[in-house]
Amino acid sequence: MKRSMVAMMSMIILAGGVVGCSSGANSGNNTMAPKADAPKADAPKTDPAAKAKIRVAWWGSQDRNDKTLKAIDLFMKKNPNIEVQSEFIGFDDYWNKVNTQAAGGNLPDLMQIHEGVINEYVSRKLLVDLNPYVDKGTINLKNVDANYLPDKVNGKLWGVNLGTNTMTMVYDPALFEKAGVEELKPGYTYEDLANTLRKMKAKLGKDFYGITLDNGYDGFKHFVRQNGTMFYSEDGKKLAYPDDKVFVEYYTYWQKLMKEGLAPGPEIQSEFKQLENSLLVHGKAAIQPVQSNQIVALVAASKRPLKMTVYPTHPGGKEGHFLKAAMSFAITSHSKSPEAAAKLIDFFTNDAEGNDILAAERGIPISSEIRKSVSAKLPDTSKQMFSYVEVAQKYARESEAPSPAGDNEIRTLLGKLQEQINFGKLTPEEGAKQFRKDAEQILAKSAK
Predict the structure, then answer these.
(1) Where are the domains of the chain?
(2) For residues 125 and 122, what is the distance between their CA atoms, to the nearest angstrom?
(3) Which CATH architecture has domain 167-323+398-447?
(4) Is 32 exposed, middle or buried (0-12, 13-18, 19+ CB in 10 A)?
(5) What is the tens place of the pLDDT at every residue in 147-200?
(6) Could you tell me the pTM of the whole model?
(7) How far apart are CA 442 and CA 444, in angstroms?
(8) Which positions make up the signal peptide (predicted)?
(9) Span 51-163+324-395 CATH architecture
């Protein structure tokens, strides 16, 4: 996998092929009606996507929304028989809305999903297997390596990856320079991070926070991997890490950062919750842990250069990084026009013009041809994302399997416990016990 990803990073200019659209014209030139004794001509086959209306839902930043709407406009110009209705929702409200739609049998035709809900939505029969659309060529995956298609359960393809990414620490080099502190280099430890933040705060004052308060699901999962296990067991019925010391160590570390003013308390963090309104964007923090594709939105919002580095290493531990689907498009079982939805997936995967607009904002494109055509035209920020993934591979190990059904509920559970720990209502030890007890109950229930 590493070899293929390194090859992916070679930035050579190659014209990408644009997916053509059917004109729908009859190729025959007979203008006379058939004779009475002649066999009747077959009725012209109608395009299943003709005059279709589809709804498409996604979450993300305003930058993503703007790019996606422009790309969809181009799709509709190339496919005049398909009307696309867009549903853009902030991440915090996205799952509440789509779960309500699922209960009412009114999910959009096409929805953006992440790997944590694949198994859950499959178990509820809410997604459509995409293999038939791949087999007949509606979705062309000929230039897509299997490593870029993680959304498979029992051999069926439930989503097509919209971009590959990994975790990163985005930082403001100007603040490091202002503080006279050396930028963090890959291989630094958690203690190195804390020491660096102490030096910066001493120079930049009490209103400066070194790092945003991002001690939720993704960061904890990364820390678990650094401690030698996966997050979930192979059968998806329990947590894989055997000792709650991992949980306690992780949240104790963040409590220490908050106590020293190196990370904001939850009251302050809540005022800067949205990506475009983060403490990093406002220059009040030097570092923000995010997914690698989010560098694009952060630079757009902050209007200044930002850089990326890997997560801290854990002395004596294993690598925590892994390459994953940033998010995927899935066709729902409520769709009345799945063929049209499949065409839009193909457009996002293979259309060179469309990907010029999207500019790899969701992550590195999965088509090798699109990677080549897009990478040469990208602004420096997006090129940095491409090169960062190559660096992150050196600090990565095997990817996680698709999360079991119940993962979304577990994310919510951890978010609630995280908040209580951050506010001092629970100790890390109490949170660890509560999380294991409730999470394994969720997994046991979901596995039935």
Answers:
(1) 51-163+324-395, 167-323+398-447
(2) 5
(3) 3-Layer(aba) Sandwich (3.40)
(4) exposed
(5) 788 777 778 999 999 998 899 999 999 999 999 999 999 999 999 999 999 999
(6) 0.73
(7) 6
(8) 1-27
(9) 3-Layer(aba) Sandwich (3.40)
